[in-house]
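#struct-pred

JT: dropping the chains for the assembly here, can someone run the whole complex?
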Amino acid sequence: MLRTFPKGGIHPPENKLTSSKPIKRLPPPNVVYVPISQHIGIPAEIVVDRKDKVEVGQVIAKSGGFVSSNIHAPVAGTVTKLDMIIDTRGYKQQCIVIRTDQKNESNFQDADLPLIAEISLEPEEILRRISDFGIVGLGGATFPSHVKLNIKKDRKLDCLIINGVECEPYLTADHRLMLEKGEEIMVGIRILMHALHVERAIIGIENNKRDAIENFKKLAAGDPGIQIAALKVKYPQGGEKQLVRALLKREVPKNGLPLDVGVVVHNVGTIFAIYQAVQHNRPLMERVVTVTGKKLGDPSNFWVKIGTPISELIEAVGGIPEDTRKIVSGGPMMGKALKSMDVPVTKGTSGILVISEDEASRGTPKNCIRCGECVDVCPMGLEPHLLMNLSEKGMYEKAAQEDIMTCIECGSCSYVCPSHRPLLDYIRFGKTIAKQLESNKG
Amino acid sequence: MSDQPIIVSASPHVHSDRTSKKLMYDVVIALVPAFLVSLYVFGFNALIVTTAAVISCLLFEYLIQKYLMKTEVTIGDGSALITGILLAFNLPAGIPVWMVVVGSLVAIGVAKLSFGGIGYNIFNPALVGRVFLLVSFPVQMTLWPTAVENNTSIVDAVTGATTLGLIKEGVQFGETISSLSASIPSAQEMFLGITSGSLGEMSALALILGGVFLIARKVISWHIPVTVLASIAVMTGVFWWIDPEHYANPLIHVLSGGAILGAFYMATDLVTSPVTKKGMVIFALGIGVITVVIRLFGSYPEGISFAILIMNAFVPLINSYFKPRRFGSRIKAKIM
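RK: done, full complex below.
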């Protein structure tokens, strides 16, 4: 029996077009645009100025507080501008524009570093490197990793969970990474187990990635502390709370964190970044991005330097198809639709999805027929139809009583609604207002 | 890229291919076997009554939406079509056409559109139409043509009581179930549909076939039909066990009357039934119990229409009491 979370969830067509395509490395772009807020928390503070020469991996924006992160130069070159841009989330923010020095050899050095398996550092030093080298959650949430790993002594922690679920349709970045960098990820897991003093780690992978499961089973053969768990394919299993429930049958309390049930969850991409930071002193400057879409010439997985414009990635897969109507940063379920392609890849960009005419249009919303589908699929046990109704009518306090704030915005309700009702749109709106009301009160 | 602007909408960016229209037409497909049985049993009359109900339901919806409410016309969504078919299924095959038209007006105009149209109605429209006709024209509404061998004959002349009617009347006049047994159709006859009753409630087999199709297509879940039928069976079973001479056995109760039609097609109406599975079970239990109470102790031989309508009224209450369990509500969150 494959493990999974018991309540709710959906299984949209997987469309993993790129799962058998090795990760390719693109030549460094001529110009990179590095935003200062690529993580949840306080934006980083710019520490370079126009005309400054920067080296690969140099800190160009310094962490602005505890819940913040350093940002490093992804290429060697010259800072040409400190500009404002629209980021993948649609917000305007500052960014550092660097012109790549195409003559600088460090821009072309092979980043496939030799494996260093031996862990020689003390936990404090490990955590320091994770913090210094700008590691954030690469699964999409971009929460600074050092904050997640800074665990008070009195908290009980007995299990590290590695999220290799990648439940979003289309995306294969984590899948490829698990196949190609399995050994490094294993070392990364051991580093974290050492740093957190835990004896047990579980890698959760959905069963549509059999090869990755086999790969890890082989690699973890001599290590009783690291288990590999095959999971039933079900969205949103990559959600922290769903994954913890699926693997350990522990339910993270409402408004709580996995740590409340003795668990810390990290994405496989983050683990690889941690490996590189700790073993190779290498900051987070690039990540794997799946560039995909049914009409694209050659959908692919790429190692992409942070700050690379999305237009260049789309160029690399054969250009934008004629009937493109939507460009999404992330997967089809939770990704953000972009207004233009002049947006740079950031630490949280797991994929670029190009959607054509026939898939992009939403159906016209009809009356709710109270079929209860949305209630059935909600993994948080909410009643989306009710929450939408309350938001629509402006009854935000009642919506808060009905636990609107616990919605994880997975979109399963909107996905299944046979009347094409924009459930999640209204729930998001209701959440925003309910939050404001709450903070006004407090 | 094309000249058309790109769309910037919020996630999710994909959608399942299920639509309410498809759900509705699945219900229509599920009703086909039962309709074929009615055609076989009642011949031309079944066709006339069903056609009259469907056309008048669609027409009233069109006219009222277009000229009275001045809103979008929704006759294409399949719901008025289902109301028409189900109303016809709940009428005797020999009923005058003008009554069918009146019933359709009540179903669509009063029960559905006056509440705001699809999704907003509290009561099952077809049942409101039927019950309106039953209390307004009690004679015509209980004139049951019996099954005839020749399916082209005009059946108005041959009328008989329904199984439940026979039992109710017989027991009231001091007869026992065993003395009535000669005139009660066998379980096999009721299962196949060689009996008398409303147009669409003839064959348990055909109705269950469609019901299983709906469950397999996930249009309805098993919770309501199974609970309704099981509660009818258990409750009538208890009475039958106490006094088999005055109470018919559970098999007769489940197979006769509108039990199966009601359980699979009327009680499961998405709009007028609860949204959670827990709520569905409570709702269905209520239907089963009220049906049996009316059948055994009420003045009508059959009570499932009333039972469903009564429980329809409780749906908002059930929805607010039987909520899904919230994720993470088992334990209180520790504050960091």
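JT: nice. Confidence is low (pLDDT under 50) at residues 149-158 of chain B. The first helix of chain B runs from residue 20 to 42.
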